[in-house]
Amino acid sequence: MQLQNTISIASLLAATLLLSFSTALKEGQTCAADRFCDSGLHCETCVANGNVRPRCTRIQPIIPTSKVKGLPFNRYTWLTTHNSFAMMGEKSATGSIILAPTNQQDSITSQLNNGVRGLMLDMYDFMNDVWLCHSFGGRCFNVTAFQPAVNVLKEIQAFLESNPSEIITIFIEDYVTSSNGLTKVFNAAGLRKYWFPVTKMPKNGGDWPTVDDMVKNNQRLVVFTSKSAKEASEGIAYEWRYVVENQCEFQLTSSNCLAVT
């Protein structure tokens, strides 16, 4: 009887160990190599957000239109990156080192190829041009300047050209004061032909045109600016007439935490 119990316990331990090694790790769990992660995941360290422990991470997000088709543009959730241009390890196009904070590990092209469909870009007047800078005080400096905005906009143009059914949204944190500065840089990048006109944007929370209609009309670039005057002067939509941003705090207390229904 004792021998039988010993064999049963040993079998149970072996089965438990086998299960623990054969069960793939889920998204967000720490890992040692890609082979330990579940299907569609890989083992990656995201240094940009301070996470030094490798975790199972989704290789690519699900493109929402691949699951449900024919909905208005605003009825989908689109993956968007913050400070999309601020890539780790970059050297300023001025030749200077960059002392500004970085947010991304991938180039704009890589982000788009991996499912990102919204880009947040900080644009400044700098060196008689429009530059992407992660700066302060409304001014760009050598150590906060990444590259001329036209370079990144040309990457977006190339993606739209190669992917005729995709839609990109750009959110501009706008510090450009030069006359028609944004218009000039978008035209120089060849993006005007994809422009979704502000006159077609619904106000007061109404539904947008369907994704199918936007693709059919080749109006596949949606651009917002943080400067309200540019809607009239340059035909670029003022963000807060059409966009609502949810509250996001690092620390929530009972006094500032609201239930949303």
UniProtKB/TrEMBL annotation:
PANTHER family per UniProt: F14J22.5 PROTEIN, PTHR13593
Any one Gene Ontology BP term: lipid metabolic process
Annotated InterPro entries: PI-PLC_domain, PLC-like_Pdiesterase_TIM-brl
Signal peptide stretch: 1-24
Any Pfam family matching the protein: PI-PLC_cat
PROSITE patterns: PIPLC_X_DOMAIN (PS50007)
Transmembrane parts of this sequence: none
Gene3D superfamilies linked: Phosphatidylinositol (PI) phosphodiesterase
GO molecular function: phosphoric diester hydrolase activity
Keywords: Signal
Full protein name: Uncharacterized protein
